[in-house]
Structures are given as C-alpha cells and as structure tokens.
C-alpha cells in the first residue's frame, strides 16, 4: 500500500473475510501522545466514509510502545491489485484500453470523488494516482489511501506524517497540479489527478525515462494519440492549469463521453435489486397450484411507489428463466404515429444476456445510483468505532498467520519463470476458492524444495484447507517435474504449468 511502512494481508476472524492490516509508525512518542485526541478524531471520520468505490476503513486503534507509537487500522482487501499493475499487464497484449471499460472505470472513480467532495466539509483525496486505485476481481473499482491527506492535514508541523505521499516519487509528479500544496488548493486537485489517471487508462502507459519524472512531451504525445474527440475534450478539461476552470466530479459524470446509461433504466435496475435484498415477503404459503409470497407490497425508496414483493424469491438469473415463458414474436413496446406505421419492438430484438449482465453489474456496484442524484452537501454520520479499551489488547501482536482455511479450492493454475539475475525458478500459484475468491501466491524455489513440503506449508499458513493438501501436492509435483526450458538456452521463462479444476 502506498505511503505506509508496513502492510499485511490478514484475516478478520470475527467476520471471516480477508482484510489489510496497516501500520503507521511514529518515533516521537511524546509528541504523538500530545495529539492523541486529534489522531483519534481523524480516524473516527475516516471510519464512517462509506461508498462502494472507496476502500473501506473498518477499524483503528493506537498502540503505544516504549520508545515509539503507531496507528493500526484495518482496511478492505481489494483482490486484483492496483490499476497500474493491471494496465501494465494489459499493455502486453493490447495497444489501447477498451472504450467501454475505460468509461466504466472513469464513472466509478468520479462517483467516489463526487461523494468525497460533497461531504461537509469536503474531503480532498490529494494522493490519487494509478497506484492508489484498485480493482476487484469482478471489475469494481475502489480508490484507496483516502486517509492520507485527511490524516496529514490534521497533524501539526511538529508531528509530521510518517506516510510517504505518491507525490514524493518522481515518477508520479505528473499526477499532481501546479497548485498542489498551496494554502488555497481544493477539490480541483483531485480532478487534475483524475485526468492524468484517465489519460493513462486510455493509452495504457505514459512513458517515463527510468526513475525520472514523466516529461511534458510524453504527456503531449499521449494526449495526441487519443482518437475519440469527446474523450480528448473530457481529459483536457480535467488537466486545465487554472483550477477554477476545471469541471467538478459531479459535472464530469454527466459528460457525453460517460453518460450512456439512461437514468430511468438505472432506477428500474436499482429498484429491482433492492427488492431482492430488502423488500421481500419472507416466506411461502401454499395456495392453489403455486406458492405466493407473504406481505403483498412495500415502498420503493427511489421511485416513491409501492412495488410487489416478489423479487427476493427470484434467482439471480431471473431474466433468463422468465424469457423461456415468453413468445419472442410478441410486441414488447410500440410508438404510434399518425398517418404512418408504428415503430414496434419485439422480445426477439432484446438481448436478454446483456440485460442479465447489466443487472449483475448494478448488483456489484459498477453503476451506483448516486451518480445521477442532485449534488448536495452531506454530513458524515457519527462513528461507532472505539479504540480498544483493554490496555492488554492495545499491545498489538504480529498478525496470527495460522488461521484455519475451510473453503475448498475449485481451480488451480501455476506458472514457472526463470529469474536470470537470481539464477533460480520463480513459482506463481493461482488458487480459486469456492466463494470465487482469487488467491495468487508467489515463491522463489530453492533446490531443496519439494511439492509435498510446499503444500504442507500452505496448509500451515492458512492458504488452503487440510483436505486440499494431497490434491495440491500432486498438482505441484507435476508442475515442478514438467520438462523446463534450460536456463542456459535462455527463453527467460518456462511454459505454463497448466491448470486444473477441483472436484
């Protein structure tokens, strides 16, 4: 995680989910204690920030040691890594980003910024780069490091934040506008940074020269490589040097390059999803040939009308199931015109797979409803988070690595790469668990390593369950003994070790 001295992948044993354990360490314990209440108040604010496109801060506490102090806070784990890592992988096979994916990513990032900027007082991210934007395995975008500027601004000069900003890395200087760090800078700082992220997403990479900063010439080349005039206008508006002329995040959500989902369609989808989750009948009673849900009707909070409580009894693939009952030649909608033939749409002209996919995307948060709401300041609720009361609990141990894994491995893949500088093989193992969680592990192989010991170690550290040990050991055995390219003959990496589906 950018800006932190120590981060660990951890297991929340209360909720049973993977999280990230973050440590901010201070060497001046006396100064830290003098501003303890300020630090607590700052993290109380961060804990209540809640948006589907923002990495959630779950909990925090302060840990005092003999000569130093630290803030420990637990954040949401985003499974597929940073945007920069994803773009680098994409660039290997593509020259440009898919326009539809680019629009969806921009919409989600702007939705998060619009939420932060409409808080009262506004929350400025101030550390937005492609390294602080993360991707879930289902395509959901989340921006991280929201804590950084809020925390740094709350601290007095004598207690400087120990967190490193992305701006301190020369390769990231181009993400920050000229006015950054001035007394009067504001939300327009984030718009400029977003514009650079949008440009990098569109071209996949803005070339830099080694460890040096990205030059103005490289940025100009990236701008001129954009073929879509609407995309170019959208990005250039974000990168205006005068901060007062940059559009707001809310305005950008309605730019013609992004605003492609009709608001009525989105409202209907959210109403449908909400009915599945919140307004269900809760049981069945027998009546005639079919069961009927209890409860009748409930109100829809967005449309302001009563809706029938059927949806929570419908499966996720309800559209596909319902289409089997339809006569596809039947007219679905019609526009009547005086003196001319009507315009008709039949069920056969509708892509039900696209509708199912759209509902899935809405369910996963890809199209949040708040994008289309009227912008208005909102106050963050009071946090219910409390620092740990028991002093013994505040003495933070090393995160326990021996939690027992109970989920079944349903698919395994591994890859072997030869690391020329180290003269050894590097193993990358991808495990897909039954709840669709993707777990990617990597390891530098030693000459003494064997498959059975490696599998046993993964069980010991809670990466796989005991019942999968034998299956994984056999899979690794085959991968490790598969004929490899001789390092001396030097292709640099081995062929794929292949994949295997679990039972």
UniProtKB/TrEMBL annotation:
Origin superkingdom: Eukaryota
Region annotation Disordered: where it falls in the sequence: 381-400, 484-503
InterPro entries: Kinase-like_dom_sf, Prot_kinase_dom, WNK_Ser-Thr_kinase
Pfam families the record matches: Pkinase
Keywords, comma-separated and alphabetical: Receptor
GO MF annotation terms: ATP binding; protein kinase activity
Protein name: Nuclear receptor-binding protein 2
């Amino acid at each position: 995680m950018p800006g932190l001295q120590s981060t660990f992948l951890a297991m929340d044993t209360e909720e049973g989910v993977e999280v990230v354990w973050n440590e901010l360490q201070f060497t001046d314990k006396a100064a830290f204690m003098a501003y303890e209440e300020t630090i607590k108040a700052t993290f109380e604010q961060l804990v209540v920030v809640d948006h589907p496109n923002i990495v959630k801060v779950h909990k925090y506490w302060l840990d005092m040691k003999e000569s130093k102090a630290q803030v420990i806070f637990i954040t949401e784990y985003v499974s597929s890594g940073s945007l920069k890592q994803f773009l680098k992988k994409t660039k290997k096979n593509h020259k440009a980003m898919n326009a539809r994916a680019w629009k969806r990513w921009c919409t989600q990032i702007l939705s998060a910024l619009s939420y932060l900027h409409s808080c009262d007082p506004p929350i400025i991210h101030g550390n937005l780069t492609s390294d602080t934007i993360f991707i879930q395995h289902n395509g959901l975008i989340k921006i991280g490091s929201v804590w950084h500027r809020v925390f740094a601004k709350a601290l007095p000069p004598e207690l400087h934040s120990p967190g490193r900003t992305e701006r301190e890395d020369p390769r990231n200087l181009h993400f920050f506008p000229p006015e950054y760090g001035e007394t009067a800078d504001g939300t327009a700082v984030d718009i400029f940074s977003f514009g650079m992220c949008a440009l990098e997403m569109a071209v996949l990479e803005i070339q830099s020269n080694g460890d040096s900063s990205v030059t103005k010439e490289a940025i100009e080349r990236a701008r001129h490589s954009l073929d879509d005039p609407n995309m170019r206008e959208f990005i250039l508006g974000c990168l205006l040097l005068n901060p007062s002329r940059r559009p707001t995040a809310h305005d950008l959500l309605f730019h013609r390059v992004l605003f492609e989902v009709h608001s009525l369609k989105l409202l209907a989808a959210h109403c449908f999803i909400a009915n599945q989750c919140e307004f269900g009948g809760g049981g069945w009673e027998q009546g005639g040939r079919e069961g009927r849900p209890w409860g009748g009707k409930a109100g829809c909070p967005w449309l302001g009308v009563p809706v029938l409580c059927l949806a929570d009894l419908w499966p996720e693939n309800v559209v596909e199931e319902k289409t089997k009952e339809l006569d596809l030649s039947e007219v679905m909608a019609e526009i009547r015109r005086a003196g001319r033939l009507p315009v008709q749409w039949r069920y056969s002209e509708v892509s039900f797979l696209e509708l199912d996919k759209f509902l899935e995307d809405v369910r996963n948060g890809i199209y949040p409803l708040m994008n289309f709401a009227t912008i208005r300041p909102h106050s963050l609720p009071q946090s219910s988070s409390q620092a740990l009361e028991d002093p013994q609990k505040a003495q933070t141990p090393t995160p326990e690595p021996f939690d027992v894994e109970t989920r079944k491995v349903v698919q395994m893949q591994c890859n072997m790469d030869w690391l020329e500088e180290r003269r050894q093989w590097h193993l990358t193992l991808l495990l897909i668990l039954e709840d669709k969680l993707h777990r990617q592990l990597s390891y530098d192989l030693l000459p003494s390593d064997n498959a059975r010991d490696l599998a046993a170690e993964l069980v010991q550290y809670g990466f796989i369950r005991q019942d999968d040990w034998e299956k994984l050991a056999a899979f690794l055995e085959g991968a490790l003994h598969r004929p490899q390219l001789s390092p001396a003959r030097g292709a640099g990496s081995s062929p794929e070790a292949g994949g295997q589906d679990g039972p």
